[in-house]
Design brief:
single chain; alpha+beta; 7 helices
């Protein structure tokens, strides 16, 4: 599926902001200028800027314009990002080479995982480990779990995320090359269907200085 134009435009500005090309306080071009540069309508530009604002990357000042936020590393993960591949998400944040590798296996659900997914303990589930590196530097690792009858998050209606600074799991610490005792940014996700079924859970770790922390719930549809 082709990436929507507003997501592409927002991703390009996000990369330039996080890369320092557009420092805090920089005024973005006008709606008309962005529309002309990208061959899109003002409506598409408005959606792109709203997406950047929801991610905490820009702020709108009445009658003055849109400016890069003072704390551009504050990230509010958008529904569009959740529907993207990890490759696309990280590439939108950086102009460096991003490598993503995955391992998938079937495992019996522990009592903790079974309780989280609402299934019997011992039932087989899928476990996906996703590792990402940017120019050889590890930037993310995740453990994702979902029942065998769930292929992806297309059946999810809601996402709950909790982001905090914690000690990483051993495998996550190894991948991120953290010093023993160092905290990392952790993200716990629950993807929930319209009928309240938990269809997928994921635990993600990033280097602590990559994102700020917050908790929120969003609608995916």
């Amino acid at each position: 599926m082709a990436e929507p134009a507003y997501v592409r435009i927002a991703g390009e500005y996000a990369r330039r902001i996080r890369g320092g090309e557009l420092p805090p306080g920089t005024q973005l071009p006008s709606y008309a200028e962005i529309a002309q540069q990208n061959g899109v309508s003002d409506i598409v530009v408005r959606k792109a800027l709203e997406l950047l604002q929801s991610q905490g990357l820009v702020r709108s000042v009445r009658r003055r314009g849109v400016f890069v936020a003072d704390r551009p590393n504050l990230v509010r993960v958008s529904p569009e990002r959740q529907m993207e591949t990890a490759e696309r998400s990280f590439q939108n944040e950086s102009d460096q080479q991003v490598r993503v590798e995955r391992e998938t296996e079937q495992i019996p659900a522990t009592s903790e995982l079974a309780g989280a997914l609402g299934i019997p303990a011992g039932e087989e589930i899928n476990h996906v480990i996703t590792r990402a590196a940017e120019d050889g530097r590890p930037i993310s690792i995740s453990d994702t779990y979902h029942p065998l009858d769930v292929a992806d998050i297309s059946g999810a209606a809601f996402l709950e995320e909790t982001i905090s600074d914690q000690l990483p799991a051993a495998a996550h610490a190894d991948w991120l090359r953290t010093t023993p005792g160092d905290l990392v940014k952790t993200v716990h996700q629950r993807f929930i269907s319209a009928d309240k079924r938990i269809v997928m859970i994921s635990d993600i770790s990033y280097p602590r200085d990559r994102y700020d922390a917050f908790v929120f719930r969003m609608s995916l549809k």
